[in-house]
Amino acid sequence: MGRRIATVIGGSGFLGRHIVKRLADQGYTIRVAVRDVESAMCLKPNGNPGQIIPIACNIRNADMVERVVEGAHVVFNLVGLLSQWGKQSFGAVHIEGAENVARACAKFNIANLIHVSALGANIDGAAEYARTKAVGEKSVLEAFPNATILRPSVVFGPEDGFFNLFAGLMRITPALPVIGAPLLPDVKFENGELDINLYGEGGSKLQPVYVGDVAQAAVNAIDNDDAKGKIFELGGPEVMTFMGVMKRILKHTERKRLLAPVSFPFAKILGGILGFLPNPLLTRDQVVMLETDNVVSEGALTLKDLGVEPTGADVILPTYLSRFKELKNQPLHVEKRV
Q1: Residue with more model confidence, 165 or 87
Q2: Torsion-angle region of residue 239: left (phi > 0), alpha (psi -120 to 50) or beta?
Q3: Would strands 112-116 and 74-77 be described as parallel, antiparallel, or unpaired?
C-alpha cells in the first residue's frame, strides 16, 4: 500500500499547523490547500522532502476544491471566519465553501471528511456566525452523511488570537474588559455595610480548549467508524467566566491591571464601530455570540470520546504568556578580571 494522502483545507492556520504536524508524523502525504501558498511554506520542514505540498485553493471555487480533494484518503475542512470582509462572507465560507468540500468528497468517494465547526453553532442563534456555522454543518451532513463534525470552544495555544490578544492589549492599557458584566452594578446593604458588585457572575462563560487536543481529536477521527456522521463538542476541563479569563492572564503575566465591567449593550456599540475595520478586535456579531455561554452541552460527545484527555489551561498558558511579563530593572553585573 502506498503512502496515503491527506488534504487539509485551511492548513496554514492556527489549528491546521498542528494537524499537519501530526499527519506528517504518521507518514501521510499532505496537501495543504490555502488561498496564499506562501503562508504554508513554513510547514514543509515538519515533514520529509516532498511530503508536505502547499496548493492554491479558494474554498468558494468548487473546481479548485475538487482538484485538491481528488485521490485523498482524508479531507479536513478547517476554514472559518471570525469577521466578514468583501467576498469573504460567513455565508460564502461557512455554507457555500463547506458544501463545495462535502460534495467533492462525495464525488470522489473520500473515506473520511472531518469538518471543523464551532461550539455554539445554532440554526436559530441570534449571531450570524452561529447560524451560518450550523447551516454549514447541516449542508455537509446532507452531502456527505459520514462526515465527522468537530465543534471546539475558544482554542488556545502559543499562537492563539485570544489569550495573546488580551495579554498584548494589557501592555498598552491600564485595564482589561469583563464582557457581559451587568449594565448597572448590584448595590446591597448587608450588616450595615455597602456591597457593590460591578461584575455580576463574572460575565460570559467560556470553556477554552488546547489546540493540541483539538488537533489530536481530529486525527483520531480518521478511520474511526464510531465518529462518522456524529457531532463532537470540544471544550477544556474548566469552564471560565470572562473575568476568570482576564484574571488568568494577569496571573501568568504577573501584571496588575484594573478589570473594567463592560455590559453587552456597550460592547455591541463598540463592536459595531470596530467591525468596520479590516481585522477588527471585536465585532457586534461576536458580542451577540458571547451572550450565550460557550460551553459543552450536557450529554454531548466530547474530546474523551475521541480518545483525548483535555489539558488544563494552567499547564499551557505559562509556556507562552511568560513573554508578556513586565521586565524588571536588574543591576548590571560586571565581571572583575585580574
Answers
A1: 165
A2: beta
A3: parallel
Contact 318, 252 (CB under 8 A): yes
Distance, CA of 79 to CA of 11 (rounded, Å):
8
- Of all residues in the chain, what percent carry a pLDDT higher than 70? 96
| pLDDT at residue 278, rounded to an integer | 80
Model confidence at 191, pLDDT cuts 50, 70, 90, reads confident
Q: Given this model, what pLDDT does residue 195 score? A: 81
- For residue 249, pLDDT over 90 is answered with yes
Q: Is 107 exposed, middle or buried (0-12, 13-18, 19+ CB in 10 A)?
A: middle
Residue partners of 328: CB distance under 8 A and separation at least 6:
none
What is the distance, to the nearest Å, from the Cα of residue 1 to the centroid of all Cα atoms in its chain?
A: 35
Across the range 140-155, mean pLDDT stands at: 98
What pLDDT score was predicted for residue 277? 84
State the sign of the Cα–Cα–Cα–Cα dihedral 302, 306, 309, 312. negative
Q: What is the mean pLDDT of residues 16-43?
A: 97
**d(C-alpha 318, C-alpha 312), whole Å:** 11
Look at residues 92, 245, 91 and name the one whose alpha carbon lies nearest to residue 154. 245
For residues 221 and 148, the answer to whether their CB atoms sit within 8 Å is yes
pTM for this predicted structure: 0.93
> Distance (Å, rounded) from C-alpha 220 to C-alpha 310?
14
Q: For each of the domains in the chain, give its residue range(s) and CATH number, in order of start.
A: 5-156+209-235+295-310 (3.40.50.720), 163-203+241-288 (no CATH)
